[in-house]
Amino acid sequence: MSMMKREEWYDLTRTTNWTPKYVSEDELFPEEMSGARGIPMAEWDTYDEPYKVTYSEYVETQREKDAGIYSVKAALSRSKFMDGIDPGWESTMQAHYGAVALAEYAASIAETRMARFAKAPGNRNMATYGMLDENRHGQHQLYFPHTYTERSRQWDWAWKANHTNEWAAVAGKNFFDDVMLTRDAVTTSIMLTFSFETGFTNMQFLGLAADAAETGDHTFASLISSIQTDESRHAQQGGPSLKILIANGKKKEAQEMVDLSIWKAWRLFSVLTGPIMDYYTPVAHRKQSFKEFMEEWIVAQFERQLLDIGLDLPWYWDEFIADIADRHHAMHLGVWYWRPTAWWNPAAGAGKAERAWLEEKYPGWNDTYGKCWDVITDNILNDRKDLTLPETLPAICHTGFIPLVTTPNKKRAAGKLVDYQLEYEGRLYHFNSEVDKWVFETDPERYKGVMNAVDHFLAGHIDPPDLGGALTWMGLSPGEMGDDAHNYAWAEDFRK
Amino acid sequence: MALFPLFSLFEDDFVIQVLPVDTEDTMDEVAQKCAYHTVERRQVARPDEVLRVQRHSNGELFPRDMKVQDAGLLPTETIDVVYEKKKD
Questions:
Q1: Which domains does chain B have, with CATH numbers?
Q2: Which of A48, A156, A312, A390 is 20 to 30 Å from A333 by CA-CA measure?
Q3: A116 part of a folded domain
Q4: Based on the structure, what is the number of domains in chain A?
């Protein structure tokens, strides 16, 4: 008996929208879980995933991928690579694993929701593979860093971070809870796969893979490149959902989903990925600047995809474009200054060679951020490290869950604020931009109860109410709290 | 006397910070408390200049001897601490 070709049976076998007999369609696909928005089942039947795969093909491919990364890991585990690595790169990996590993597990739950509740059979099929993908990513990104836990307790934060109140972990949880764990299947397909995975995981995984290869970290490069091949497949679930929404008169809702989730993803990446690329990665091994990566992988990609699909560019696009050249510098300065609150050792990246690179990539850096680093550098050289450490908390945005920042030593444009404040039901909320405030205002009932670290501090949940109490509350013990990755050696470049 | 939390942005600094003050503090005292967390940390000192406090949202400048409790500020409201502009 000859085998039929896949394309001859694929569409038929995944056409599984049978007519339910024992329950109603609404009971089978509750609106709060499915999010069909009144669009009839027949329309969801037209969902056409661009990347088609069968289970047997999936298993075969995944097996080959796992064999590939484990063989690289086994071959290189005997090398002394980590002993000779720049401390900034070790920090990069610690930050990455802590921020990503358990979020991948959580993404498996989001995929499971689509696999069960999406009304589109094609979405359910793809999400089943996505669910398996994310489980794989979680396991690998726990197993690989576990190899290094003997080096320092900071490596253990790959597992620990998401179980703590540490601010960066909470910012990540806030984002992922919002876009993938508390949304219906259709919204999840758009916010998680279209907005976040299409652009931003490309950034994290391909961008970092390039830097890893340049640094000589082939284990990390092969791992995250392997993960990205899964991401680029299951990231294609959102596009067909958007097309169905637009074809059925729901463009406004679709646009809002995209606008909101791109912005929130950007906020998270500005604090986690920006500093890694432009400050932690040794300057000789930087493939491109963060801004260049953003322009190539995010801006160009989204502009093309959004217009192709029939959506508009987000209403804040001009502000976004300006932000990608600036915001992560402030985030880096903040993470470094508040370094005991991080589970990794931030690399200042402010020696002479690094500053020359920053000024070349970001003209004007020396006159803005550089002036702050001048004061910090002088304090280090004058044995006043106490002045390079914080004695209070930064105020935190209620949308991005990251500090309220601005470009230092630069006059703000007329009418531009750093804190857009909103009093809602007797509580004052703080937002770092009009866009952050707009996110809240799209659904105040959804967002009004949020509590960031400062809210907990002011509510008396941190005892004693000082920085030491905050570190304990965040789960940071000695040996885990961040310190300068290079033990301040970079400042010696400037000793006269 | 009561503890009163404000958020504050010092001139030319990059971040808004949490600033616990007292309701009896004057605006000059508030400015000094804010400066403690920025000056000589990320900004050089400008000892000969006068610091003023203004409401972040609309730039309303508070009198230097005004007490926090009389300023009509909300808990956690953001203030700017700025160098007084020199008269020509």
A1: 3-83 (3.10.20.270)
A2: A156
A3: yes
A4: 1
Residue B78 has phi, psi (to 5 degrees) of -90, 130
Asked whether residue A201 is assigned to any structural domain, the reply reads yes
Q: Write out pLDDT tens, residues A342-352.
A: 999 999 999 99
Whether ipTM > 0.95 holds is yes
Q: How many Å apart are CA B58 and CA B47, to the nearest integer?
A: 27
CB pairs below 8 Å between A and B: how many?
101
Please give the pLDDT value at position A245: 98
Residues A187 and A200: their CA atoms lie apart, in Å, by 17
Among B12, B20, B77, beta carbon nearest to A408: B12
With beta carbons under 8 A apart, name residues in chain A contacting B44.
Answer: 375
Distance from CA of B57 to the nearest CA of A (A): 7
In a domain, A29, yes or no: no
| Nearest partner of B62 among B31, B20, B17, judged by Cα | B31
Q: Rounded to two decimals, what is the model's pTM?
A: 0.95
Q: Number of C-alpha atoms within 13 angstroms, CB side, residue A403?
A: 30
Q: What is the CATH number of the domain that holds A351?
A: 1.10.620.20
pLDDT tens, residue by residue, B15-49: 999 999 999 999 999 999 999 999 999 999 999 99
| DSSP track, A47-71 | ---SS---HHHHHHHHHHHHHHHHH
Nearest to A237 by CA among A147, A55, A111, A345: A111
Q: Which has the closest alpha carbon to A482: A141, A96, A91?
A: A91
For A425, other C-beta atoms within 10 Å of its C-beta total 8
A291 is a domain residue: yes
d(CA A204, CA A141): 14
Count Cβ atoms below 10 Å from residue B50 Cβ, excluding itself. 13
